[in-house]
Amino acid sequence: MQQRGKKGNTDDLLAASFKELLCKAPMEKITIKDITDKAGVIRPTFYNHFADKYALLEYIVRHDLLEPIKPLLLNDMIQEGLTLLFSSMQNERAFYERAVCIDGQNSFESIARSEVSKLLLEIIDQKKQGKSHKYTWLDRQIIAEYYANSMCYVAIAWIKRDYMISPKDLSEVYKYLTKSSMMDVLNELV
């Protein structure tokens, strides 16, 4: 058990180092050596924990954003979970403002969508074991990806628009969008 704690501490050290560096420099300028030097570990230690910077970013999304909200989502506290998620992003505003600028094959958006989709699949599997939807095409994978895409889109748009509303208000907007039809939303435009 002690080794697991040490691995977690090293993961967290590397994550904190990476976050601090990304707040000051673009992703492409940050080297593994920069991350390990700031974390106070040797370079091979990084590769014992992560394949590359993008795997470290996946860890941050999963560990810092999604693991804390999983119990809330499992207990049908969706709005509270989203408020916590958005609050966590706002609390590390400088990091996420830079993270959403990471483009390309391993963009922040694609990493976030993938990690959210994995979390939603876990929740679907735990809560709806063996159940299927009346629309057979609408399987667990499509459901998870749909909500992961919409959740990530809303969160990233919110960050790019300088956090114009509070995390609680954003979770209410997301709830409204997911519970309303497109026609309902369009009919309510003023």
Automatic annotation (TrEMBL):
Organism domain of life: Bacteria
Residue ranges: DNA binding: 31-50
Keywords, alphabetical: DNA-binding
InterPro entries per UniProt: Homeodomain-like_sf, HTH-type_Tx_Regulator, HTH_TetR, TetR_C_Firmicutes
Ranges where the HTH tetR-type domain occurs: 8-68
Keyword check for DNA-binding: yes
Protein name: TetR/AcrR family transcriptional regulator C-terminal domain-containing protein
